Amino acid sequence: VIDIRKLYAQAGVFTYDPGFTSTASCDSTITYIDGEAGVLLHRGYPIGQLAKESHYLEVCYLLLYGELPSAAQLEEFETLVTRHTMIHEQMHNFFRGFRRDAHPMATMVGVVGAMSAFYHDSTDINDEHQREVASIRLIAKMPTIAAMAYKYSIGQPFVYPRNDLDYASNFLRMCFSVPAEEYEVNPILARAMDRIFTLHADHEQNASTSTVRLASSSGANPFACIAAGIACLWGPAHGGANQACLEMLREIGTPDRIPEFIERAKDKNDPFRLMGFGHRVYKNFDPRAKVMKESADEVLELLGIENNPTLQVAKELERVALEDPYFAEKKLYPNVDFYSGIILDAMGFPTSMFTPIFALARTVGWVSQWKEQLADPQLKIGRPRQLYLGAAQRDYVDIEQR
Ligand code: ACO
Questions:
Q1: Keyword set for this entry (predicted)?
Q2: How confident is the model over 329-349, as pLDDT tens digits?
């Protein structure tokens, strides 16, 4: 009989770290976070500066290649991305295979995984040129795929990309144009959309990025790896929190009901948590939430809906929670998802589109981390250990004797 404890003793030292709270899975030069100080840097540049002074495709270049582009490099990169926004016409049939009211995240997991079947010429991970083409294809086609998943879920015809528009405007138009009425993109809303993309572009080894890296460590093709990332992002503890947060704010409805929800969040017998609050790494404030809050104010002012009841509830909830000793003691602050939903809602997106928008924005982070991982000469297949607590070895018992 095998003595499991003896086996562990022989196995030498290994760490038991549920949720990987103190285990680094890789080294990386892409993103730096100081959770205590509320700092987030991409390739050394603070997120606040990038969100306000740069724009999404420039940040994509920075994440992918390590430096800010020159004007010529940026133009070349933007042209390349723009040229790849179309998806293969045959993929339209793939969308149509889904149930008519499928959640857009469900469709995206399937369609992005299926890109490996449509773009064979960029699935060889050992070929640097193919890796490059796959990266550009993913970043370029994700808005088209997300918009198509949305259009399909509401029973409207697909809108093709228009390559004279910038990345964010093109996405807004593909979501909101209908055959009878061309959507006029408001540049301020396009800027706010671009800022949401920038604020979500990368966030080092979060759950979905770690999933992409783990999937890729076996040598899986890039589209399959990114589909795995999208699946992981969907959960309400991660990217799905933006949808859950807005739904919670609507359920609260009016500021006078806030204390009831605060009490529920503190009750350990109630599984309810304040959505949009707390973060594994940020224990002071989430620097993305700060910019997002400013953006929410701008967008609602532009649309003339500053008195939006959801925003009023959000602001009051933030104030009450920050003054509550429970949240202070546990260092729970609003995260990036707390205000993004309010902006997206004001733009006209249904809550089911919040997480797909996060996924399209995070694609560049996943792709950058995937490329970095493949360039690592020390790359090993990811294979966590476990602490086995099950039965010791025993003999099979015939069914009549059980
Ligand atoms: N509401 C109430 N209590 C909370 C909340 C919350 N939102 N978040 C954490 N806590 C409490 C926990 O109950 C726990 O209490 P305990 O020590 O008495 O057991 C303590 O704070 C620590 O929480 P953990 O879950 O251990 O922290 P962890 O780092 O594992 O989780 C997470 C972080 C998942 C983000 C969590 O704060 C949460 O569920 N928040 C709500 C969902 C959300 O907004 N997710 C978005 C994250 S940001 C993003 O993905 C872009």
A1: Acyltransferase, Transferase, Tricarboxylic acid cycle
A2: 999 988 888 889 889 998 999
